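User: Sequence recovery, please. Input:
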């Protein structure tokens, strides 16, 4: 049993960081790739297939914890939460966890208990990590679209909280919301003013 893990939302100025853990089914869904390389329509199709046929779970870390832990620590926590939730569903631990990137939560989160291997660019080369990247991105995108209904002026339904010119202009005009990461520049500079 090999589980893939990836996150979405490390770079935005607003919203949570989301990690997903996926145990692929056999045969695995075809067309898996890095979520950033797929169209929104294709990501949606693959997400539905993965959720229907494979085992998966997500871990979400909110803005307050991102500001408290820093984004790296929050990402490690989100990954830990995702794998723990998947293990609870499965009723057992995986043989190995493949993590996209150059570091794993091993030794960085006290709750992490699984054998893990970091794979740089893993979301493009390891199908289980590709599946996790799709689940994480789709989950976070939906959260940001929902948040955009309460904070329409920031354009989160389009920019998903990233620092686009329109988002930055809205931030200057309206100031930060409770969903903005106060530890991230330029939000941190506005909070200090």
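Assistant: Recovered sequence (193 residues):
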């Amino acid at each position: 049993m090999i589980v893939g893990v990836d996150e979405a939302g490390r770079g935005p100025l607003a919203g949570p960081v989301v990690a997903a853990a996926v145990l692929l089914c056999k045969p695995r869904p075809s067309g898996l790739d890095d979520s950033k390389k797929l169209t929104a329509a294709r990501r949606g199709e693959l997400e539905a297939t993965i959720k229907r046929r494979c085992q998966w779970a997500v871990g979400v870390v909110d803005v307050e914890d991102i500001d408290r832990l820093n984004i790296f620590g929050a990402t490690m926590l989100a990954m830990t939460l995702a794998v723990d939730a998947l293990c609870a569903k499965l009723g057992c631990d995986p043989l190995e966890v493949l993590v996209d990137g150059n570091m794993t939560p091993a030794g960085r989160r006290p709750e992490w208990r699984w054998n893990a291997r970091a794979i740089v660019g893993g979301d493009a080369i390891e199908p289980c990590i590709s599946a996790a990247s799709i689940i994480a991105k789709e989950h976070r995108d939906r959260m940001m679209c929902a948040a955009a209904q309460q904070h329409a002026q920031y354009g989160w339904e389009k920019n998903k909280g990233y620092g686009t010119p329109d988002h930055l202009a809205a931030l200057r005009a309206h100031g930060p919301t409770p969903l903005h990461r106060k530890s991230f520049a330029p939000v941190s500079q506005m909070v200090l003013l």
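The longest strand covers residues 2-8.
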